[in-house]
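Design a sequence for this backbone.
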């Protein structure tokens, strides 16, 4: 059994009479990417601050990398790295100096510190910029430096608080690549985001934070199956084949103009096989078969009481 890098139980936090977290449970296996998803103000940063010992919870327990958050806060801090909205980058000094400062903070011997800094600057494509003040860096470079600085201490668990908010599309994709590479060495990534696409792209498991609680949790695929709207679409070029299929597939909705049939389906292998088997045995050939799964936007709106998801199924052709 894989052990948990983060295990939290009943986390609560209020500011004044505003309840931000109202009993949050989390279980994040080691070496995975976990995404806490929620709109602005949902409490994502509060959760990160609690789990990284920056803020004390009003209730609940958590273990991070095997250490109790309350009783072993020092050990927790030694095992984690945090980056995000509260960037640690000092703009007045160069990227390299920022890295060496981090190495000092982690009490690395001088030569070891230089080696680690050089290696990370190289890995994050910051060699050319290393001797320039961080104030001259673009948003993407600053985020890369921030993550590089976090890695100096060799953390086992990394908290990334909205790592791509405000980045241009190219920098966002670079950041996604970096995040994927972080877990290859067994590191665990706890990522907060307000972008469904980002969670879908990166996370092994996703938890949707709504009204201070986890409204749903699972892989992107599992979450998508929670909402209606998934279907298989069969398109025909031969009107006779279309009519025969429409007559035989009772529950299908047909569109005579485009010779297309829509069959409600979760898109699972089992359901696809039964549709294909049926077509084969009836000797009917469809021009095209596409699977349409609801995307995370549909899930999010369905869970948080927004627009009905089933009205506008998104196209996800596989
Ligand atoms: P998110 O990261 O999801 O945008 P936050 O955790 O930053 O959400 O904030 C959740 C809620 O808690 C917000 O309504 C915010 O105003 C409130 N909040 C956060 N920190 C404090 C604080 N130190 N004092 C008072 N209210 C706070």
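Sequence:
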């Amino acid at each position: 059994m894989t052990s948990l890098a983060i295990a939290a139980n009943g986390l609560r936090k209020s500011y004044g009479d505003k309840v931000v977290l109202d009993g949050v449970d989390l279980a994040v296996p080691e070496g995975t990417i976990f995404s806490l998803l929620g709109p602005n103000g949902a409490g994502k940063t509060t959760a990160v601050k609690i789990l990284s010992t920056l803020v004390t919870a009003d209730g609940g327990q958590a273990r991070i990398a095997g250490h109790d958050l309350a009783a072993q806060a020092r050990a927790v801090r030694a095992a984690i790295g945090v980056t995000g909205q509260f960037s640690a980058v000092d703009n007045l000094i160069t990227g390299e100096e920022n890295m060496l400062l981090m190495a000092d903070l982690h009490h690395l011997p001088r030569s070891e510190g230089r080696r680690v800094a050089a290696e990370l600057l190289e890995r994050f494509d910051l060699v050319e910029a290393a001797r320039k003040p961080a104030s001259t860096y673009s948003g993407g470079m600053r985020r890369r430096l921030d993550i590089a600085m976090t890695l100096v201490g060799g953390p086992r668990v990394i908290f990334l608080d909205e790592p791509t908010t405000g980045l241009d599309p190219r920098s966002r994709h670079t950041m996604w690549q970096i995040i994927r590479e972080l877990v290859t060495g067994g590191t665990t990534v706890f990522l907060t985001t307000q972008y469904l696409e980002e969670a879908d792209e990166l996370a092994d498991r996703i938890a949707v934070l709504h009204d201070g609680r986890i409204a749903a949790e699972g892989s992107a695929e599992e979450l998508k199956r929670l909402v209606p709207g998934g279907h298989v679409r069969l398109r025909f070029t031969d009107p006779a084949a279309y009519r025969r299929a429409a007559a035989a597939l009772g529950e299908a909705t047909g569109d005579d103009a485009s010779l297309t049939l829509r069959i409600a389906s979760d898109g699972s292998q089992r359901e696809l096989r039964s549709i294909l088997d049926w077509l084969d045995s009836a000797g009917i050939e469809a021009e095209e078969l596409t699977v349409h799964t609801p995307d995370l936007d549909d899930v999010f709106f369905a869970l948080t009481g927004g627009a009905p998801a089933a009205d506008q199924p998104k196209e996800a052709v596989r």
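Residues 4-224 form a domain with the Rossmann fold fold (CATH 3.40.50.300).
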